[in-house]
Amino acid sequence: MALISEISEIEAFIRVKFPQATYEKQTVPEQPTPGLFVVRFLRDGRTLETGMHYRIDRDYQIIHFGKYPEDTMPAMSELSAAIYATDGLPEVHMRFEGFGFSQPVLTENKIYATVGVLHTTVREMKPQRQYDKINHIHPRYV
Questions:
Q1: At what angle do helices 3-17 and 69-84 cross, to 10 degrees?
Q2: For the CA atoms of 65, 71, 89, 26, what is the dihedral angle to 10 degrees?
Q3: Do the beta carbons of residue 60 and residue 39 sit within 8 Å?
Q4: How far apart are CA 98 and CA 83, in angstroms?
Q5: Burial (Cβ within 10 Å: 0-12, 13-18, ≥19) of residue 14
Q6: Which pTM was predicted?
Q7: Which end of the chain is flanked by fewer CB atoms within 10 Å, N or C?
Q8: Residue 3 confidence (pLDDT) above 60
Q9: Cβ-Cβ contacts under 8 Å for 21 (sequence gap 6 or more)
Q10: Averaged pLDDT for residues 129-142
């Protein structure tokens, strides 16, 4: 699955919980506004599990901006509860493995930001060699 599709699905998941918020993908604006969520890709690690598939462990950064620390902490806590209440995003075959967030920090723009990290897992089929089909097999009776 394309990485940008996964980022879009994570954003859509957050949007259900916080429809009034604004959203950005991958880039934090120079002048973030209160109520903004930013979803960013952080890391990708791959592990071969069997001869048929491999596991992709990905981390995504979710940043929430608020005018006060009291705006960001409850929002991230609600998001955390929503993440742990579901297994993941079946649309992109993604499982949620964990989520944690930090204490709010004051930005240069005099608003607060809380940064969270969402740990996910996706399993994908390993490409398999294709063989030509055997055609026109006729049994012989002896």
A1: 110
A2: 0
A3: yes
A4: 8
A5: buried
A6: 0.86
A7: C
A8: yes
A9: 14, 15, 35, 36, 37
A10: 77
Report whether pLDDT(1) > 70. no
Q: What is the amino acid identity at position 27?
A: T
Question: CB atoms < 10 A from the CB of 17, how many?
Answer: 14
pLDDT digits (tens, 9 = 90+) for 60-117: 999 999 999 999 999 999 999 999 999 899 999 999 999 999 999 999 999 999 999 9
- Give the up-direction half-sphere exposure of residue 112: CA atoms within 13 A in the CB hemisphere: 16
Residues 6+ apart with CB under 8 A from 71: 34, 35, 112
Terminal Cα distance for the chain, rounded: 53
Tokens describing residue 62: 């979710």
Q: Are 66 and 75 in contact (CB under 8 A)?
A: yes
Picking from 22, 118, 112, the residue whose alpha carbon sits closest to that of residue 72 is: 112
Centre a 10 Å sphere on the Cβ of residue 114 and count the other Cβ atoms it contains. 23
pLDDT per residue over 41-71, tens digit each? 999 999 998 888 899 999 999 999 999 999 9
